[in-house]
Amino acid sequence: MNQxxxxxxxxxxxxxxxxxxxxxxxxxxxxATRWLAxxxxxxxxxxxxxxxxxxxxxxxxxxxMTLDGVWTAASGPLCPLASGxxxxxxxxxxxxxxxxxxxxxxxxxxxxxxxxxxxIHIGVPVSLNWLNMHIATDGQRIWIDGPESQIDQxxxxxxxxxxxxxxxxxxxxxxxxxxxxxxxxxxxTKFAGRTYAPATAASRLLGAGAGTTDND
Length: 216
What we know:
By secondary structure, the protein is of the alpha+beta class. The protein has helices spanning 5-18, 23-38, 43-53, 80-89, 91-95, 112-122, 182-192, 201-206; strands spanning 2-4, 100-105, 126-130, 133-137, 142-145, 157-163, 170-172, 177-179.
């Protein structure tokens, strides 16, 4: 389905909140999903998969335990949203030439928007590498060099982020609308539904309609 970026961001944010993320992290998830969608990348598919994978995990279990050395999680793979937020906080270190290494990150494409924001912050492109995939961004544009099958990687992989330079190859600039698969919409809508409080007699009286009165 063809969706506006505002619609994509709003649904992704509410779905992330419904999956148990804080409102702050849910907002980051919405913005990241929007950024990927604006470049024609499967942000909604990957977010839906990530939320399903981490549904039974406390968010702190998949966040980086320390930002020294190689990043690892307390339990299982690193969450790309938590890792991405931490990556953005380390923008100055990237600018100074430090390579950020993450041991095992699932759905690694979800880190790319955070790298883009880090690139804007330091004013130079930033690159991410996993398996045979190389992605660089200056914050607005994105360059992709690698097999298409690894763009929507879901299994946990080692990821490295470094300061980069202008790249050649497949280049993408943002658009205002994006195609979203029906399956990802359905999955995200289900998570988003958890944020809605169940109706009560009092809420029905305050809402539209006849409430508890039968006018027939």
